[in-house]
């Protein structure tokens, strides 16, 4: 558990209350907290009725009788896509821009709600024609282009289930996700633009389907990169041909609120990523509600930009479902922040007059390193609210973000949540809360958070403990795809059970450490398990260890997340080479090769910053690798307690070697 955030907090004691103007115009008022406190479940029912269109209204709000499997709004029926598109057109807002999209090479498109609706209707007809219907799984492996959104909404419209796989993941990672969910269809693109080059996506799909045993019947290919692709007749179809030939009308059918909406894979503590399952009505309610209230959305006037890739949960909830359910106008950008120059993001904010901007601390820190002159040379005066997500934002970065990007006056909402929570859980509301740098602060209305000690009792401030969600919430995961036991075990086994009065209680264990400060604000302290947070993305140490030992050169591997100024944490690996391999190459060659191997196995985000070749790994007498000690050396600290090691000299040798 890192204590960096507490240390730096000690040096930043300023509070930032909303300006009177901001507070007066804010969409969320203090009455939200009051009504949610009086009746949290009723509060969510009100949000669901107010923010969504129900084909069939619900009478049941929360059914927790089969805990920890929740049902929200179970007898209600809705169509998620109808809520994100058709109803805005029917309400007379068809001309409003849904997406301003900017490609990395500088091409751009602005797409209205009416146009987006038509595209989605055509895509839904195409997919239905390919046999996709309610409950079928469709994999989406795309760059950040509007067609990714069209594909997701077309799948949702049919009551089918999307599984979006981040375009930076390897062919191998894609294959395992396609297989785990038995997807019938893959939607991809020929390529996408990144750092001035086209990266091939279709080739990775071909690789993932190469063994011929896949459940995939068709591959729909969007033309984006104009790069050459291999074609499998009978299986592969061009998106533009199919959409052009399809009917432009499609009537959205209603599905039960608990109809599955998507699966999104995320790393856990074991080697195999888990398919987090989300369903429709509760999820859409909470993402719409939080998108409106946390980001103070005024859909008629705001231009919103969330920089996340659609392949992550942030892209699902706060690029696709939240903003579109709320009828927002948003910017989507395909490429990297520094292409073709390091002012690209600020140039886009100026060009589109972005007013709400949501990004990750790792990006802010990398801009901070480049200096304020770059953002200063653009007009960022349209910005009125900033958001942060993915990892704790250190107060220094918070202040820089507010000053250099926000002109010294914009509120910053630090939002804590997870793939599993589906939507924001802890955040200030910008028109109400006095902001405190370095703290996500308070649960949003309707959410109950506690910090518990190892023994399950509540810890008193300022002691640290483990963060739990104490009541079910609408956007909560509904399970792990195909593995109900792992779902119970991972999230619900640690603190659930009878309370002092013998009443069964359920507490969701998030895997994060946290403490409550003397004002009652929550400060997040990082993961307490073997999950690393690299640039706001989750990777498990075991997943990377498995990738390393899959290389014939490696006998054993241990991976740790070491503190890194730019990326929060960085992957550092320690490997023992097989005896017959040791002489084959230099330590440097082996290290380079293995770094590339991990990138090829999992994806570039998993590429270790360093791979150290060692003769032995520190183990306890029972054979468990002492990652904590390796983390000490990787972070350049003095060695901690080595008394439980079988051979303490191992650590001295490793740490001497690193010095
Ligand atoms: C983990 C979830 C949810 C979107 C992106 C990541 C960390 C996330 C914060 C924050 C401190 C944060 C936690 C969490 N995290 N936001 N504002 N402050 N930590 O989603 O990949 O599911 O990762 O990210 O450790 O458990 P994810």
Give a verbal description of the structure.
With 659 residues, the chain is of the alpha/beta class. The strands form nine sheets. Strands 12-11-8-6-7-14-15-23 form an eight-stranded mixed beta sheet, with helices on both faces. A seven-stranded mixed beta sheet has the order 5-4-17-16-18-19-20, sandwiched between helices. Helix 7 (113-129) crosses helix 11 (239-245). Residues 1-8 have low confidence and may be disordered. Bound molecules: 5'-O-[(S)-butoxy(hydroxy)phosphoryl]adenosine. 5'-O-[(S)-butoxy(hydroxy)phosphoryl]adenosine binds next to helix 13, strand 20, strand 26, strand 27 and strand 29.
